Amino acid sequence: MSLYQRHKAVMPDWLALYYDKPIELTHGEGRHVWDADGNRYLDFFGGILTTMTAHALPEVTKAVADQAGRIIHSSTLYLNRPMVELAERIAALSGIRDARVFFTTSGTEANDTALLLATAHRGSNQVLAMRNSYHGRSFSTVSITGNRSWSPTSLSPLQTLYVHGGVRGRGPFAGLSDAEFVRACVADLEDVLGQARSGVAALIAEPVQGVGGFTSPPDGLYAAFREVLDRHGILWISDEVQTGWGRTGEHFWGWQAHAQNGPPDILTFAKGIGNGMSIGGVVARAEIMNGLDANSISTFGGSPVTMAAGVANLAYLLEHDLQGNARRVGGLLLERLRAIGAGVPCVREVRGRGLMAGIELVRPGTDQAWPEAAAAVLEAARAGGLLLGKGGGHDTSVLRIAPPLSLTVAEAEEGADMIEAALRSV
Question: Cα Rg for the chain, rounded, in angstroms?
Fold first, then answer.
């Protein structure tokens, strides 16, 4: 019996697998991975933006092995040196004053914790979220996800109010200038708040929407929102699970593109910081983080092994200026992809920042999403030796490109050539 058959026999039907003939990845090095049949691939998706620095990065694998040789687990009931060290570094980098850090095992759990903190602090279960958003798989995060493809239930512990602004190129405000777009979205926010009970807890927003197809608003939108939120005492949660750690190139955090009115009240992170290890977390001002009036711990959040990996990975990222590399190499890759897209009829838009690029596909001559083409390009790219991701909202089909931040210029050129061949094969 094949591994695929065994998978289908014991795993849920809704557990998605890429490709008509799913592949088993067995090992990786740098920006490349190999499957069980010995095929080599250039990895342009990094385990869903998680392999941030490189596969099998020696600094990280050594830190994991060394820590595992000492102690693997203790829980948060005991002092944990690697956890404190990583928390100190993240607090300093966060931009949030008097910051406190709580570690989780995933981005879903981080966002779940942020919602708990915000609703407890404000005494309200009302939450503002962005249309086309995605924040995780738990009951609370599904309930604020504005993307029906990833929302399996309409039941919710929260009252969620959705506002415009996460998608620049589609929707009722698409034809406006950037300044007009921001004004229209602020007016929409004001209108939504006029219909809500007083005391809305928070706005949660991805600076660049990940699963939604790497869409983003004009710079400054969330700063403009912040002026409205502050008048009402509403907290701002910046979901940096995919945009954190310099991936956008221009900024270390996605919120910094909207920094005119200061940092968010709460920041969530995950994915890249562990380079594949299970790390998520929340940064918040002390008055918010310390506001819970019940006991709480984490059995696996802040594990000594994952924290050691995070410390080593973050040090490598900073010492090798991978944010700068994302800006330089990502800029070249985006320029090349835009040139390719201009000559392919099914490409509606190439968008992104740094090493976070999206290619939106439509049926030629229309504005209609073409999911079959996205699936076909994904297959063609894999056959050509390249791994991509895909996503989009209810009316979009998007190829998602997010390689490790150590990507070289030569690898970017090679990947662009593979993408062009895959697109032209549709």
Answer: 21
Nearest of 256, 152, 139, 126 to residue 204 by alpha carbon:
126
| Closest alpha carbon to 281 in 256, 306, 263, 248 | 306
| pLDDT tens column, 345-404 | 999 999 999 999 999 999 999 999 999 999 999 999 999 999 999 999 989 999 999 999
Q: How far apart are CA 209 and CA 171, in angstroms?
A: 15
For residue 38, give every residue at least 6 positions away whose Cβ sits within 8 Å of its Cβ, in sequence order, or none: none
How far CA 167 is from CA of 108, 123, 141, 175, 378, in Å, comes to 22, 30, 20, 12, 23
Other CB atoms within 10 A of residue 164 CB: 22
Contacts of 164 (CB under 8 A, 6+ apart): 130, 131, 171, 172, 173, 184, 185, 188
Which amino acid makes up residue 362?
V
Strand ranges for 273-321 from DSSP E: 280-285
Please answer whether residues 50 and 276 qualify as being in contact, where contact means their C-beta atoms are separated by less than 8 angstroms.
Answer: yes
C-alpha span between 153 and 343 (Å, rounded) = 40
Mean pLDDT of 217-226: 98
* DSSP alpha helix (H) spans, 20-154: 46-49, 58-70, 81-94, 107-122, 139-142
- Alpha helix positions (H), 96-196: 107-122, 139-142, 178-195
Q: How many CB atoms lie within 10 A of CB 3?
A: 11
**Which pLDDT tens digit goes with each residue over 28-51?**
999 999 999 999 999 999 999 999
The pTM of this model reads 0.96
Q: What is the spatial distance between Cα 281 and Cα 7, in angstroms, rounded to a whole number?
A: 30
Let me know: does 118 contact 276? Beta carbons within 8 Å. Answer: no
Question: What is the amino acid identity at position 299?
Answer: T
- Per-residue pLDDT, 147: 87
305-339 burial by CB neighbour count: b if 16+ within 10 A, else e? Answer: bbbbbbbbbbebbeeeebbebbbebbbebbebbbe
Distance CA 423, CA 409 (A): 21
Write phi, then psi, for 40 (nearest 5 degrees): -105, 135
Judging by beta carbons within 10 Å of its beta carbon (0-12, 13-18, 19+), is residue 393 exposed, middle or buried? buried
